[in-house]
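Why does residue order matter? Because the sequence determines the fold. Keep that principle in mind as you read this record.
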Amino acid sequence: MSLVSLKAELRQQLKLSPQLLQSMEILQMNSQELLEYLGRLTEENPLLEPEDAPSLRDAYEELRQKASWIDGGVYGATFAHAENAPPERGAADRELESLAAFLRDQLERMRLPKPLLALSKYIAEMVDEDGYLDDADLDGLRELKIPDTLIRQALDTVQSLDPAGVGARDLSECLLLQLARRENVSPAVMDIAARFLPELGKKHYGPIARELGLSAAEIQAAEKVISSLDPHPGRAFQPAEPAVYVRPDVFIVELDGVLTAVLNEYYLPRISISSYYTRLLKDSDEKETRDYLRQKMQQAKWLLTSLDRRGGTLRRCADAILEAQRPFFAGETGELAPMSLLSLSEALELHPSTISRAARDKYLQCRQGTYPLRYFFSRAVGEQGPSRQAVKQRLLALVQNEDPRRPLSDQRLCELLAEDGVRVARRTVAKYRMELRLPSSSGRRR
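Structure:
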């Protein structure tokens, strides 16, 4: 019997070129990261020349005259690069260790398969400052056709990291993740954390005792264990300074009576290729010099192409967001229209990951204030319902207008929303209320 066999196999494999990797990296940089990146490259590559652009200063001041609410601190002194210039607003050093960086460091030490490692890192980046994940972000992964099995594995991996409780979708899951790491935790404690947190918070022991067959002393002992847990596992990584200053990447301003999206590129130096080194590349007789300059020339051209792509993609995203949320920017409503990352990617004929990178850590400033670009991606409640942000706005208005002596329960809020045409479950109302940092009805009673 022959031990040699031939097999034909058709396999599709994607290899990312250095140029494409650089383009993806630059696209997901926010304004401050891009400014620092350009500074490093111009120091490393002699063919790159940063140019002062006085015309941009004039254009920026003209824009500020038309929109006086634009913060004058975003321009700073980045054009002149003056040594004695005061530090620009928001230029404070970043924290050496963030929660996302701490999670990534743990993941890199786990020797995971590459697909699982990549998705786990991606999920770790979506964890908020308190250590929680939004279900909408996981839904977005499913829209990208990522297998549910891989998503579940990546979520379990993130939830296995320190600090305990990180990656939870709600408070109950956060506490259960912490309890799972403790020894000799009674089933009663797990049951109460899973099903009876609202009753425990109000010290309504009766329903818990009847359902689980526990005595008041056993419930109080469980309460002591649960109260020792951390409901905000990510807060230890928050910076000491509560105030964070950002430079908007996009302005929505009214120009000649028309709302327009304007990219905030006024602070960036204009990069060009040095004419001196270009001539030297042509005229030099030394092969080593020509090879070096040829390599740097290629890097310079890649950079300029990547910058053009970043600006074009970000501009298209900003225009699409403006079009979808025009009533909000016009001041006609405070509610956002439903818009998902997937719907925007289909409208622009771009991959959802490209939209995700374009929106990462970027901010939009308009007359109403300064918002993360991700704020405007608010999925619909139900198939044809309003956006989640709109439901939260209505929920907040109901609580603000309630009688403080008789505050509305979650069930009553659910009924009032239904009367307004918004049908959501009571658990969803409780979830949105907690995300708005509103206490329960008993906590709001005066």
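The radius of gyration is 27 Å.
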